[in-house]
Amino acid sequence: MLRIVLALISVATVMGEGCCPPDAWEGFEGLLAGSVQNGRTHLTKGGLMLHLNNTGKIIAIEEDLFVDDHEIKLKVIQDYNRGTEYMIIDGKCTKKTLEPWKPKCIPDDAQVVQNTYFGAGSATMAVKTYSFIDKGLQVYATATVNGCVPIVEAISGTTAEGVSTVDVVEFSGITPGIKDPSVFNIPSICNSVDIPFQYVPSLSRLRRSVFH
């Protein structure tokens, strides 16, 4: 999939209008991410279950990842109404202050690098691939023409923390709406916690996707 995404870079670009996914949606993400910080390399792979409510300004992400061959299961809740992100790992909760809410959309100044489709014959789905810069990182994002449903995303560059990274994400099983709103409930162990968020380079991509 990475080869397919990078091949789109050579296609002539045209300015296009951005788009926004459904206001509330859930879906699975398959992740493969490589990063380098202070000369050390990290490889992260695994799956994430994403729950996003744009109107409610809240996101929940349940993850099962392998970071440098070590399995990590965690949950992240980004509550923009409280301005706080909670990360729950092994029954412990840490938190950090969030930046102001920004709609989770492909920006209007993104360039369309390809109009194409997935499938064959009568069973096809029209998609667009966009190119843009987000927080200093190069992003290539593919979404459906009808509904702006995310398909694949590739992100590369150096983060503000000095981490060089290449991330590829494939989206699947996306459904509109939130089946169980309790997924956004803040665990009681987080109510009185005052421990700052522990930065983990391999997990930093949580805050990089244009779709969340």
From TrEMBL:
What species does this protein belong to? Potamilus streckersoni
Q: Which Pfam families match?
A: Ependymin
| Signal peptide coordinates | 1-16
One GO location term (cellular component): extracellular region
What GO biological process terms does the UniProt entry carry, in alphabetical order?
cell-matrix adhesion
Provide the alphabetized UniProt keywords.
Signal
Q: Which InterPro entries does its entry note?
A: Ependymin
Q: What's the protein name?
A: Uncharacterized protein
- Please give the Gene Ontology molecular function terms for this protein: calcium ion binding
Highest classification ranks of the organism: Eukaryota, Metazoa, Spiralia, Lophotrochozoa, Mollusca
PANTHER family referenced in this protein's UniProt entry, alphabetically: MAMMALIAN EPENDYMIN-RELATED PROTEIN 1, RICIN B LECTIN DOMAIN-CONTAINING PROTEIN
